[in-house]
């Protein structure tokens, strides 16, 4: 067989080096042997047939924005870089669906949908740089999940190339369908370990009319969560920033949010619900701003990550807990930060109970960040939650996956991997 | 081992006869040997350990409201009747979740949630008689799916007894989670062929404030669909009844809906969206009613099935098509009815492109109904849709499943079945 199945590739040093790691900053040993640059599904099939015939481990990659090492590629592996397959194949306003290649940038799809009055709802913080394929691989979330759910809830069907190069179609182009077992859902969140998505049919949503955004400061996170619990209806967005995050934002933007209160809650709601939201937040808020311009009030939230990056290398963690345990989680995370004497800024998709404790790494004390992260994962499980709400497992949480899942579940997980990829060539060492 | 693993059981004639079929009216040969009546998860585990050790086929059953023969049980099988496991184990307003046993009646859960201002969103037409376990088995839908999605979108985690009696926990109690492959989604819609659900953690939703319901008659279904396409926002409900359905309702309720127009569209929307809904429907509607009492206007829709039952035994079909193909589907179904000279009344969850063509069986010409059904499934596939939107495959659509799914997909489906149930004792002959 032709080298790499005849698929375009690069073995240039710069290309190989750029594909060895991802946004997690973690790396495995060495670097990939080559980076394949498929142009279409046929190229992906050729690459996988070649990989199967040679037993070569393949690391599928979108934009490399994984925060868990899911796209890291080391010695002996070949990267399948899908970022060049970035066409929006079709977009139907009448059906409220789009068919996209995996390399499409998420925000680009959202903008294309907006031209016909629709939105692609999932909006991970990385949406301007991450790809739909990567979002599918991790079942990515975002701010709007409060209302619209995660990536899984917007994916109707997939075209997938299996490990041996066979192409299968899953799901349908319809909003509902229960013809056979849910293979679509199985591929979503599987981090490229079960097959390679070459096309996705996604659901688009109407852009809601007349949203009101309210930013309210509270004495502490517990007060903010209590107030949020009294909010009527389903907020579109409900974001919480803790004191450490607010201090970082203040230093970056020149604001004085931390002085107002130790927690900032930003809620976006429909105009029907917003009077009730105001009534719920006002009694205990120490300050409150209302705007029909959501972007202005969300600016602090969207600036949080660059703000924290000023403090050092951020390790972006991702746990979820039952909503009622959110205050307890935020307090416990602050305790962990104090105990390990390491900054941890916490952002939360509060309506979903999904927290991003962002640990600022101290290179002089590498054990501190790792220990703090371990305590955060243990906390999530103790509170009845999960070690990952929307970022996935990758390499960094594999150990913890075995603590979250019971042995019989893990046995089935390994059985699934073996069923789809008996040779173990698809993103080996990730998830399981 | 003790007979049936020591689980309470019945072998009374009346009990066996009552569990041999389901609401599809179809049956397999003979009747079950026994009906097991587990009281809890431990009983289910005992039953499955016994079944594995004896190689006995087990037919899990809720309320027996399957419309596809998924609960039919014949000679040599033992029915595992879960309707007695009907406790709402917990319901948390703060977390907006509930933990329920599989035998809980769907509407009972919704009413329990309503006492704390929440709803369990999925509302199949059978919600007053069907169980959560059965809803999970078929990934049931309903009227409110337009806004809230199907059962899968409300199930966060499951406790499942596997074929060999092992208990596993899937998913989490949180709204988001991507720790490992999505086993929860795999069990939802699997019709009892992969494992037996003994507990489900479900998501509850806020009850939306201030809904407006609009019932509009149109000259034909195409005009109704065109008008619906112009509706802003996300309707909570959008139901369509065709001319044949309206005639049946008129005969049953003494109304004169069919005289107004050949299609009735009932849209429920938020007060923000309702002015826009009115603007979209009014120009082409031949009559229009607006009410804040949704139940009154939905009465015609909810009466449709009993109305059609007056005409004869209804075969309730269930296809879904891309939304834009809905008018074409309705017209083609009317043509099929005319060609086979058999009444077909069509109800549609119009916002989802999900149609229920209800064929009124003519016992003197059994081939007519079957042929019409076949043409309807072929139509669904021709229009880019699916042979089942929310009722599942059961025994009645197995043949058609092999036409909808490509061979590689089917191979994986069979591999999944074999992985979870290597002896093939779980609801054999269903789905695959």
Automatic annotation (TrEMBL), chains A, B:
Cofactor list: FAD
GO molecular function, one term: FAD binding
The organism's place on the tree of life at top rank: Bacteria
Residue intervals of the FAD-binding PCMH-type domain: 28-207
Pfam families tied to this protein: FAD-oxidase_C, FAD_binding_4
Residue ranges of the region described as Disordered: 1-30
Keywords, alphabetical: FAD, Flavoprotein, Oxidoreductase
Name this protein carries in UniProt: FAD-linked oxidase
Species name: Winogradskya consettensis
């Amino acid at each position: 067989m032709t080298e790499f199945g005849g698929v375009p590739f690069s073995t240039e040093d710069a290309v190989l080096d750029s594909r060895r790691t991802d946004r997690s900053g973690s790396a495995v040993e060495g670097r990939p042997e080559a980076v394949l640059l498929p142009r279409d599904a046929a190229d992906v099939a050729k690459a996988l047939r070649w990989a199967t015939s040679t037993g070569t481990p393949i690391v599928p990659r979108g934009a490399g924005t994984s925060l868990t090492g899911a796209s890291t590629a080391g010695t002996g592996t070949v990267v399948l870089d899908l970022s060049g397959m970035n066409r929006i194949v079709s977009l139907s306003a009448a059906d409220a669906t789009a068919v996209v290649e995996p390399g499409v940038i998420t925000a680009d799809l959202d903008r294309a949908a907006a031209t016909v009055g629709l939105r692609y709802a999932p909006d991970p913080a990385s949406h301007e740089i991450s790809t739909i394929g990567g979002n599918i691989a991790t079942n990515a979330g975002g701010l709007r999940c409060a209302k619209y759910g995660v990536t899984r809830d917007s994916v109707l069907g997939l075209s997938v190339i299996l490990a041996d190069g066979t192409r299968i179609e899953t799901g349908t182009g319809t909003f509902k369908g229960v013809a056979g077992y849910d293979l679509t859902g199985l591929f979503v969140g599987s981090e490229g370990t079960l097959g390679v998505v070459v096309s996705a049919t996604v659901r688009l949503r109407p852009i809601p009319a007349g949203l009101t955004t309210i930013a309210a400061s509270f004495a502490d996170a517990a007060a903010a969560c209590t107030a949020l619990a009294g909010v009527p209806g389903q907020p579109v967005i409900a974001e919480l920033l803790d004191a450490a995050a607010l201090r970082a934002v203040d230093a970056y933007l020149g604001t004085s949010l931390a002085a107002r209160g130790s927690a900032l809650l930003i809620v976006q709601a429909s105009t029907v619900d917003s009077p009730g939201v105001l009534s719920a937040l006002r009694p205990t808020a120490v300050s409150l701003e209302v705007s029909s311009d959501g972007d202005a009030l969300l600016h602090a939230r969207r600036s949080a990550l660059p703000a924290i990056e000023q403090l050092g290398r951020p390790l972006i963690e991702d746990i979820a807990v039952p909503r009622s345990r959110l205050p307890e989680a935020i307090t416990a995370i602050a305790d962990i930060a104090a105990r390990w004497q390491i900054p941890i800024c916490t952002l939360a998709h509060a309506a979903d109970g999904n927290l991003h404790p962002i640990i600022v790494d101290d290179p002089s004390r590498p054990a501190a960040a790792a220990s703090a992260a371990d305590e955060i994962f243990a906390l999530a499980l103790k509170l009845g939650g999960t070690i990952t709400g929307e970022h996935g497992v990758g390499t960094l949480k594999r150990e913890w996956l075995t603590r979250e899942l019971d042995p019989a579940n893990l046995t089935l997980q390994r059985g699934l991997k073996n069923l789809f990829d008996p040779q173990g060539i698809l993103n080996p060492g990730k998830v399981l």
